[in-house]
């Protein structure tokens, strides 16, 4: 690569970094067609993410979205209506702390919940033959989110949902282990995903794979008897 090309490449990379970006879970891209989303609908959801995370605009107008996607305002309105009707997208109302005004923002947690539930279902089906007999079939991943929301006393944010999805999809923690880690956090009075993540990492290092082993490890850690 000669100096001129390298210089152009460096400037291009610097400009790309300055423009910011968004993190998109591979799970969303793998499953959107199976969830019944078209390419255009998926791209619209991704553009909403870009507006929120990179452009700091939580509620882009249909006109703004239409211009970016090369669609008409009417087409964008129809797409948004369908996404909200199918619970892929919602609109949240909140009070802006800086202005004190009532504001609105898009919330795509519904898409994430649908993708997580489908991914968990597909994994159960493909691994069913390899699993040892289970006491009870695990609850859908969407129920796991409900458990967290009940303990936290509020709805989870999209980032929190992605963190939990990552425990299942990337780290391969079982729902049983995640639920028990949540119980440990409640017991310790430290209700945060960061604290729960540290618990899961510690158990993984000690090859804790189920609730019984986790309970024994926790009792040992607290100085109790197994």
How do the strands and helices of this protein lay out in sequence?
Blueprint: H1 3-19, H2 26-31, H3 39-53, H4 62-69, H5 73-85, E1 90-95, E2 102-107, H6 109-127, H7 141-152, H8 158-169, H9 175-188, H10 193-205, H11 211-221
Helix pairs in contact: 4-5, 6-8, 7-9, 9-10, 9-11
Can you put this structure into words, describing what you see?
By secondary structure, the chain is mostly helical. It is built from 11 helices and 2 strands; from the N terminus they run H-H-H-H-H-E-E-H-H-H-H-H-H. Helix 4 crosses helix 5, helix 6 packs parallel to helix 8 and helix 7 runs parallel beside helix 9. It starts with a helix and ends in a 5-residue tail after the last helix. About 6% of the residues have low confidence.
**Rg result:** 21 Å
How many discrete domains? 2
Shape: globular
Just name the CATH architecture of the largest domain: Orthogonal Bundle
Mean pLDDT: 83
- Helix share bin: 55-70%
Specify the CATH homologous superfamily of the largest domain: Winged helix-like DNA-binding domain superfamily/Winged helix DNA-binding domain
Distance, first to last CA = 63 Å
What's the CATH topology name of the largest domain? Arc Repressor Mutant, subunit A
Strand-and-helix sequence, N→C? HHHHHEEHHHHHH
Regions with little confidence, pLDDT below 50 for 5+ residues = 13-17, 132-139
* Strand proportion: 5-15%
Question: So what's the CATH class of the largest domain?
Answer: Mainly Alpha
Determine the structural class based on helices, strands and strand pairing.
mainly alpha
- H/I helix tally: 11
Main pleated sheet: 2 strands, antiparallel
- Please provide the count of β strands: 2
Strand order of the largest sheet: 1-2
């Amino acid at each position: 690569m000669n100096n001129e090309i390298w210089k152009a490449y460096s400037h291009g990379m610097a400009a790309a970094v300055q423009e910011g970006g968004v993190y998109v879970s591979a799970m969303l891209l793998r499953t959107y067609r199976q969830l019944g989303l078209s390419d255009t609908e998926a791209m619209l959801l991704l553009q909403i993410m870009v507006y929120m995370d990179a452009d700091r605009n939580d509620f882009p107008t249909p006109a703004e979205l239409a211009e970016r996607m090369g669609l008409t305002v009417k087409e964008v309105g129809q797409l948004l209506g369908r996404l909200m009707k199918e619970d892929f997208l919602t609109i949240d109302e909140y009070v802006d702390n800086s202005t004190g005004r009532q504001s609105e923002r898009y919330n795509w947690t519904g898409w994430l919940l649908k993708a997580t539930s489908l991914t968990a279902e597909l994994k159960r089906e493909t691994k069913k033959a390899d699993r040892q007999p289970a006491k009870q079939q695990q609850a859908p991943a969407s129920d796991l989110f409900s458990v967290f929301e009940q303990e936290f006393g509020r709805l989870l944010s999209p980032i929190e949902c992605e963190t939990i999805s990552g425990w299942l999809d990337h780290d391969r923690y079982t729902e049983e282990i995640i639920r028990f880690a949540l119980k440990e956090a409640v017991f310790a009075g430290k209700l945060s995903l960061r604290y729960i993540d540290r618990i899961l990492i510690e158990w993984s290092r000690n090859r804790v794979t189920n609730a019984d082993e986790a309970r024994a490890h926790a009792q040992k850690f607290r100085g109790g008897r197994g």
